[in-house]
Protein: Germination protease
Amino acid sequence: MFSIRTDLALEARELYQENSNQEIPGVEVEQKKEDFATVTRVKVFNRQGSEIMGKPEGSYITVEAPGLKKADADLKDQVSQLLAKELVQLIPKKKNLKTLIVGLGNWNVTPDALGPQVVSKVLVTRHFFEAYGKKDDPTMTSVSAISPGVMGTTGIETVEIIRGIVEKTKPDLVIAIDALASRRMERVHTTIQISTTGINPGSGVGNMRKEFSEKTMGVPVLAIGVPTVVDAATLTNDTIKLVVENLKTQASKGSQFFQILQEMSEEDKYSLIREVLDPYGANVFVTTKDIDIMITNLSQIIASALNISLHPGIDLKDVNRYLH
Structure:
């Protein structure tokens, strides 16, 4: 199967099904629909499933809420609570839990600023525990947070920075937040993915950095991501598919142009599009014009979910007071 850029396990599964019309061996899928969102759990439990999906073995939970494109305060609260509910199931049930939250990305590039903006809104408490020599509190846990920047501004691999912090502060859990790439424009800003497999910073835009996972950190790593961009070639390919579907119902369906498009394989179409776009820039990614407000809203949603799930004595009302 040819490679269409996507960081979403849900979409990797869809691509396989489009080509084979069957479920991926070694993969289990469970879907639940809420009034305002759909939750899809994809579990990759063996090597075969991992190789087909192009994703490490582990769990991938996707929350899709189309209303987030025009979200009001109530919907943002609902999504935060749903996200917190999923996170609670994955956070270790450990007394005196210590968590490090890492905001990956470049705060100077809006589509890549999700991680840093989340970090600016999380409730950090580690310094209180350290200052007062407190090991346990029934209302909150020890939380630290950092946004390490990108290699282009630091000259240091992000994994090396975080590994040094982990070795020094010894958290029980690391939660990484990063911007992702999707294959469909309708999922940009409306989908949140949680995974137990860690993350490869920059993978969505073809800028692969060192793996950020339990294997490299020495502690469990949860990754939270939101697609903020779509690869231009992928978007164009999907647009052509829609055009072909539309032409099927038109009188022009007997035209030579239609016949050529219909007979081309998906791989040939995608390769042709990339070849045409290459002179204009090999790595062209598309986002929406309201990216600024969407990153602000999504960072609030994710930060609220983290604050609720990591601090038992804090509810959404408290969180909203803190953020506003």
About this structure: Residues 291-310 form the longest helix (20 residues).
